[in-house]
Each structure stands twice: as C-alpha cells, then as structure tokens.
Amino acid sequence: MGEKRQEKIWTGQFWIAVINNFFLFVVHYALLTSLPLYILYELNGNEGQAGLAMAIFMLSAIIVRPFAGKIIEVFGKRKTLLISELFFCLSSVLYIFIDSLPLLLALRLFHGIWFSILTTVLIAIVNDIIPESRKGAGIGYFMMSNNLAIVFGPLIVLTGLQWFPYKVLFTSLATVVFMSFLFIFSLKVSEYPSSLSTVKRNRLTWEDFIESKAIPIAIVGALTAFSYAGVLSFISVFAETRDVFEYVSLFFLVFAIAMMIVRPFTGQLYDTKGPNSVIYPSFFFFTVGLFMLSNIHTVPTLLVAGALIGIGYGSIFPCLQALAIQSTHKHRSGHATSTFFTLFDGGLAIGAILLGVVSAQWGYTIMYIFCGVIVILTALIYWRLVSVKKSDTYNKTEEHLSLKQSS
C-alpha cells in the first residue's frame, strides 16, 4: 500500500491533459461571458436572444452527451479526441467571421456538439493516466483546471474588451485553443476493448448510451448542479441588488483559491479514507455557504461565502465524477462519464430555469435558502443511493478486474 500511495500523478502526460483542458474551458467561459455582450452591442440583439445563444449551446451538448460513450466505443478514444478537438478548434475560429444572429445561433449549436464529445473523451483518457490508487486526488486536480478557467476566462474577456475589439478577442481565443490542440498529439491514449457481451449487435440498446451503474451518482451530481446553478446564473444580479456587484470577480477568485488550498487534502482523504470522508463535509460547507450568500450585505460576507462554496462544491464535483468513473469497468469509462455529465448538465439547465422562477416570485434570499435546503436533501439522497459499503468497493472491484485480466 505504501508504494501505491507514492505513484505519481503529475506526469508529463497528466500535465498535457490538464493544460489542454484548462485552455478549452478558458475559451468556453470567455465565450459565455463575451457573446451576450457581442449580441447586444455588435449584432443589435436583445437579452432574450443573448439567452437563447447560451441555451442552444447547452441544449446541443445535453442531447449529444448520451451518445458520446458509444462514439468513443466505436471509434476509440484517440480518434474521438483528435476529431472532436479539431472541430472544437474550427468552431472557435468561425466566431471571427460571424456577423449575424442566425449564423451565431447555428454556430453555437455546432460548437456545443463537439464540446460535449471532447470533454467526455478527455476525462476518460485522463482516468487511464491517473494511477488506480490516486484516483480521488488525480480527478480532483484535473477538475481544478475547470474551476480555474471559470475565473480566468471571464477575467481575460472583461479586461481585453477594455482595450481591443471583439474580433481581436475571438482571434486570440482561437489561437489559444489551436496551440492546445497541437499538444494532444503527444498524448498517449490507452484503448480498452469491449467485453464479449458488448461486441457488434444489430440493435442499439440502453447500454449503448447509458451506464446504469453510474446513474445513482449522476442523480446526486444533477441535484448538486441544480443548487450550483443559483450561484453561476444569479450571483451577479443578486450582488448588484446588494451594492457589491464590483466585487463579484473577487468572489470567484476567492472560490478558486479556497478550492486549490483544500484540494491536496481532499484528494488524499478520498484515496486513503474513502469518498464519504470528503463528500459529507463538502455538502456541509456548500450548504453553509449558500445560507450565508442568501443574506449578504457586506463584501466580507460575500467573500466568506465564496470560500465556503469553493471548498464545498469545489470538492463535491470531482469526487462524484471519480465515483462515477470507478463504478464500472475501464472500457465503459466513456459511458460512465457521458451518463454523469448528461444528468449534471441537465441539473444545471433545469436549475437555471426553475431558480429563475423562484427568484422572480420570492426573491434571491429565498432562492439561495432553497438551494441550501436542496443540498441537505442531496446529502441524504447520496447516503441512501450510494452507501458506504458500495462506494468503498469501487477501487477494489477495479483492482480485482485488472488482476483477473492479467492472469
């Protein structure tokens, strides 16, 4: 056991995957921030059209996500990675030439398809790179690149637009993502053949799209995402009503710093003490952060809430994703990932819609209290659906399968 704990996570291959993922999500969040402004001020659109451009991207990603696992199984991880990232890059370039709203909406639909496939296959590849005994820490560090991109993507955009026009911004983002694309050619990809029960069939079945073993964890992920949608979608508007709008960027910065500080400890706890040792405390911090956010009147309160949510949500998400991947066989990791993100993305989308209704009817304070209550219920559902015994056997099952295949 001592030797396993010493297995390295930060290999050259892992660095390539993390850097690539970071740049992909920087571009993603930069576009999420800049396109509504571009639609309003350059294309003479309205707020509804700006929202539609964001929604259509998510819709295409959610629709395609269940098919991603089957695509990976048929074409293999390497081909899927290269093709999906190439089209993701081409989509990023096309923003430079878009000068009408219909074309932009069509591009968002196209871009969402490749974003969905690319992010699914990249996580499946990273899962193979991370040593079995370090899954909790490894997935956590990898997902930290997503959370850092949440900070740096909008920061780059909001700073850059003060000095440069939109076309220069889009050109810069396309250049960054193409540079990232060149790095993945040096990424070594492990392919795991399907078991005999999944070889060529004439008819598609449920298993071609969904990994049943990952569904309980994906349900917990969807409910967690539902509550986080209240932060992601409405924190700026709520902060403006409390006269702390100019400090929202600091909120996300504190979120990222708090997450990075605890990540080494949470990853070690996951791998040595099991997922429950991280997930239950994280639910607690997430809940307290949401309750505190519901009653912000000062900047310190806003920032403390950001730190608590960063510790809570920032630790729950990678743990649940690691559990989803570990719930099944290696050759089904793509299906498990697509199942998890299908429900997770659905939770974000439904949360943004329903919480918008709640905030309109009862105000943001009630909305964030409601989100906190949902997190408490989610912790109970996690306890019911993902028992201690079951979660602790995921690593053992994988090790047993590996030994059986090698013998």
From TrEMBL:
Membrane spanning stretches: 12-31, 51-68, 80-98, 104-126, 138-164, 170-193, 214-238, 244-266, 278-296, 302-325, 337-360, 366-386
Protein name: Putative MFS family arabinose efflux permease
Species this chain originates from: Psychrobacillus insolitus
Pfam families found in the cross-reference section: MFS_1
UniProt entry tagged with the keyword Membrane: yes
GO MF term list: transmembrane transporter activity
Coiled coil: none
Localization annotation: Cell membrane
Location of the Major facilitator superfamily (MFS) profile domain: 14-390
Any single GO CC term annotated in Swiss-Prot or TrEMBL for this entry: plasma membrane
Topology versus the membrane: Multi-pass membrane protein
Protein keywords: Membrane, Transmembrane, Transmembrane helix, Transport
Keyword flag Acetylation: no
Major site of localization recorded for this protein: membrane
Entry-linked CDD domains: MFS_YfcJ_like
